[in-house]
């Protein structure tokens, strides 16, 4: 085709695209990510107008921050035209900047985050309650200047407007007291999610009244609090309480007694976070016995757990989506194998998407070979500091876990360029095939036995190989074939001499 004809055809196609009605263009834009939508808006005036359809921005969260005294009027006008509903201010934002934006767009806001903003005080919240009357979620976590202990005066000023709030986050606000918790329960009866991490000295009578008044409460975060076994025993038995999620991270006064009572009476729990809590096998066994719909289990740094508990809670894997065994170093390779791979040869499709085994020092290639053929839905895997994992284990991961989006291998010092490139030595490759055939029990997919290298993880977005000292520029060349990778950590990879492009 002559060059002139080709140019005219291309021009005609462009004219057809630009002639589409705004409604059609806007509908097409619904299939774009927010970042792509932003680029499309810069193409021409027509596409810019189409991109301002509020439907396109209904679920987009906007984060604002500036070093200037005020935000640009063009920016604020743009947010208003798009009817932005999710807004987050960075911690350096001033009260004047927050009021400037919320005065103009506040009537559309459903979710407002002021996390860590140093300017938040009673007066600012009172004004915001007038500008943002339709909020359903409010994040005031780490607002250290907000004096929540002053009899909750700010609640009295805002409660009439924000009575419909369903999510309130007061994590790490100083001096959260009985008075505040009771006022929240009285003035915001529709709360579903309540976070008061770091609360101290709250008595059982307050917890009892809160549970009765907040009948819709499903998610409770009291991490880093001073709640005791005695309080938890009485609190968990309140008839009105039907929790689905609880965060008890770093509750140093809790032991098996308190957590077991919670598990026995709150059997509808779906998310349990017990990181850094002094529990033993007793708690884990009770979780497996009483909670049958658990989706998220965080046992980070619960170092007293042993294989004895794992053998009795196999059924947990049927529903679990996220499991964290960070630094549970008493769990052995054989114990983890029996727990994670018990569904092998059955019809169960394990839904687990997030698995953290960071610091489980006994973990070896044998376990990785086993679970890589079973946990095929994994999207995030953390094997950091598992020093016995080598190129054999990495080959199993890259061959079978093709849905991975995040892979952390920090301090896996035996991983080399060969593992990243899929060039496992012959004797290791044979061992890989032997193990796969031995444990797969009749699986049909023989392709998973062939090492394919890191490039086979086409959906991978994050890769951490920091402190993997055997990796060189050759390994980076293999990594560069990952088209969707957005985050790469090669800190202390001492043999990497130059960045490969």
From TrEMBL:
Coiled-coil segments on the chain, per record: none
Record key words, sorted: Ubl conjugation pathway
Pfam families in alphabetical order: DUF7885 (PF25372), F-box-like (PF12937), LRR_6 (PF13516)
Biological process according to GO: SCF-dependent proteasomal ubiquitin-dependent protein catabolic process
SUPFAM superfamilies: F-box domain (SSF81383), L domain-like (SSF52058), RNI-like (SSF52047)
InterPro entries in the cross-refs: F-box-like_dom_sf, F-box_dom, FBXL15_LRR, Leu-rich_rpt, Leu-rich_rpt_Cys-con_subtyp, LRR_dom_sf
GO cellular component terms given for this protein: SCF ubiquitin ligase complex
Residue ranges constituting the F-box domain according to the UniProt record: 14-60
Protein name: F-box/LRR-repeat protein 14
Lineage of source species: Eukaryota, Metazoa, Cnidaria, Anthozoa, Hexacorallia
């Amino acid at each position: 085709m002559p060059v002139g004809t080709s140019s005219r055809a291309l021009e005609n196609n462009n004219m057809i695209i630009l002639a589409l009605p705004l409604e059609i263009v806007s509908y097409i834009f619904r299939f774009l990510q927010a970042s792509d939508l932003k680029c499309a808006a810069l193409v021409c005036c027509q596409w810019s107008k189409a991109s301002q359809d509020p439907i396109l921005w209904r679920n987009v969260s906007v984060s604002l921050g500036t070093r200037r005294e005020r935000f640009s009027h063009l920016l604020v006008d743009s947010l208003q035209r798009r009817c932005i509903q999710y807004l987050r201010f960075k911690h350096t934002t001033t009260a004047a900047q927050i009021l400037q934006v919320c005065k103009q767009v506040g009537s559309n806001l459903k979710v407002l985050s002021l996390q860590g903003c140093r300017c938040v005080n009673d007066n600012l919240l009172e004004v915001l309650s007038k500008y943002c009357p339709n909020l359903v979620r409010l994040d005031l976590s780490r607002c250290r200047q907000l004096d929540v202990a002053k009899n909750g005066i700010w609640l009295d000023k805002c409660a009439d407007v924000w009575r419909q709030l369903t999510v309130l986050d007061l994590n790490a606000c100083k001096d959260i007291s009985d008075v505040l918790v009771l006022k929240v329960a009285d003035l915001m009866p529709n709360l579903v999610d309540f976070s008061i991490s770091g609360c101290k000295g709250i008595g059982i009578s307050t917890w009892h009244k809160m549970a009765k008044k907040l009948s819709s409460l499903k998610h409770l975060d009291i991490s880093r609090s001073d709640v005791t076994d005695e309080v938890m025993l009485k609190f968990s038995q309140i008839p009105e309480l039907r929790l689905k999620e609880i965060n008890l991270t770093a509750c140093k006064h809790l032991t098996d007694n308190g957590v077991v009572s919670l598990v026995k009476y709150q059997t509808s729990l779906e998310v349990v976070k017990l990181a850094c809590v002094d529990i033993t096998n007793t708690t884990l066994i009770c979780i497996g016995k009483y909670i049958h719909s658990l989706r998220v289990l965080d046992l980070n740094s619960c170092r007293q757990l042993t294989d004895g508990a794992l053998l009795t809670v196999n059924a947990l894997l049927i529903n679990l989506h996220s499991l964290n065994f960070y630094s549970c170093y008493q769990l052995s390779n054989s114990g983890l194998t029996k727990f994670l791979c018990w569904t092998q040869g059955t019809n169960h499709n394990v839904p687990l998407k997030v698995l953290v085994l960071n610091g489980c020092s006994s973990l070896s290639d044998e376990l990785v070979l086993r679970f890589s053929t079973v946990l095929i839905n994994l999207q995030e895997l953390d094997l950091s500091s598992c020093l016995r994992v080598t190129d054999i284990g990495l080959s199993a991961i890259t061959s079978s876990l093709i849905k991975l989006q995040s892979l952390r291998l920090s301090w896996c010092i035996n991983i080399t360029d060969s593992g990243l490139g899929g060039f496992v030595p012959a004797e290791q490759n044979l061992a890989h095939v032997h193990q796969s055939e031995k444990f797969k029990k009749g699986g049909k997919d023989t392709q998973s036995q062939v090492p394919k290298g890191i490039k086979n993880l086409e959906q991978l977005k994050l890769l951490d190989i920091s402190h993997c000292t055997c990796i060189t520029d050759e390994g980076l060349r293999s990594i560069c074939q990952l088209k969707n990778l957005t985050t790469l950590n090669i800190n202390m990879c001492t043999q990497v001499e130059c960045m490969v492009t």
